[in-house]
Amino acid sequence: MRHLTLLKFPVLALAILCLLLLSVAAKAQTDSTSAQTDTTAQTGVGKRWVIETKDGSVIQGRFMGQTEAGIKLMTESAGEVLIPNNQIRSAKVLDEAKFRKGVYWFENPNSSRYLFGPSAFSLRKGEAYYQNTYLVLNSFSYGVTNNFTIGGGFELISTFTGNPIVFLTPKYSFPITEKLRAGAGVFYANAIGTSDNFSGLGIGYGLVTYGNTDDNATVGLGYGFVDEEFSSQPVITISGMKRVSRKVGLVTENWIVPADGSYGIFSYGMRFMGEKITVDLAFLNNADIASEIPIGVPYVDFVIKFGK
């Protein structure tokens, strides 16, 4: 009975998580209109704004005021324009610090993870994302609060074998200073329909991240467990991210097990970014892999972000 409860918990949590993601997507349009009104009251003339209209157009300019007719922006290409209120899908004030040589760098939409492993950055409350790795590993995450993220997912191929693999990835993180954050979490996985003698596997970890969402480094320490027995040796992770242009970043994620002379996997790759999507193209490598494939094993994933 205990094992059946463990198996049902990931499935139930995953179902709840999917419902939360659907509610975020459905709620986005309504929230954006109210957010636009709130932002208007808090900002003055001259701030840089970006407005997305219901037909998909994106207009950027200096805020000149708002009337019952709509929002006025002073744009560089068309001068002063009026966007009717009933045509506005979303509106937000742009952070002046994110302008580099006159070009706005949108926020990194996937700062809470490197390739698969986490950083100490969290999703904000109400944000969510879907990640697909190798087209078969599907994961979902939702920001319950600004510090607590609940995640979960499943492996596609195993769903056709009668023993689908599901996993949970809760994480709590918090700021220590402006550039330093800490966090802790668990990765837990199990296969539905396996022997009652198996209660799952995973890793419990803690980590610290230094930097900002564009340029950062993370060190983590965790202990793996299989069937309620923990490893006597820790797993160390060292990861980093460097944004080199508006839409491109460099990313690395490295796992080290300091046992029997140490063993591990290191990776290096590139992240291609849009405002709501990222695509990672990387290679996984170590001495054993390099002896057969010098460049390493290709790694591919993409992330779609929802919410704010």
Task: List the topology elements.
Blueprint: H1 2-42, E1 48-53, E2 58-66, E3 70-75, E4 79-84, E5 88-93, E6 99-100, E7 103-104, E8 128-133, E9 137-143, E10 148-155, E11 165-168, E12 171-175, E13 180-191, E14 201-211, E15 215-226, E16 229-230, E17 235-243, E18 248-257, E19 263-273, E20 277-285, H2 287-292, E21 297-306
Antiparallel strand pairs: 1-2, 1-5, 2-3, 3-4, 6-7, 8-9, 8-21, 9-10, 10-11, 10-12, 11-13, 12-13, 13-14, 14-15, 15-16, 15-17, 17-18, 18-19, 19-20, 20-21
Radius of gyration: 22 Å
- The third-level CATH topology of the largest domain is Porin
Mass-distribution shape: elongated
Count of domain modules: 2
Give the helix/strand class: alpha+beta
Mean pLDDT: 85
Order of helices and strands: HEEEEEEEEEEEEEEEEEEEEHE
Characterize the main sheet: 14 strands, antiparallel
How does this model look, in words?
By secondary structure, this protein is α+β, with helices and mostly antiparallel strands. The chain has two helices and 21 strands. The chain has helices spanning 2-42, 287-292, and strands at 48-53, 58-66, 70-75, 79-84, 88-93, 99-100, 103-104, 128-133, 137-143, 148-155, 165-168, 171-175, 180-191, 201-211, 215-226, 229-230, 235-243, 248-257, 263-273, 277-285, 297-306. Strands 8, 9, 10, 11, 12, 13, 14, 15, 16, 17, 18, 19, 20 and 21 form a 14-stranded antiparallel sheet that branches. Strand 8 (128-133) and strand 9 (137-143) form a beta hairpin.
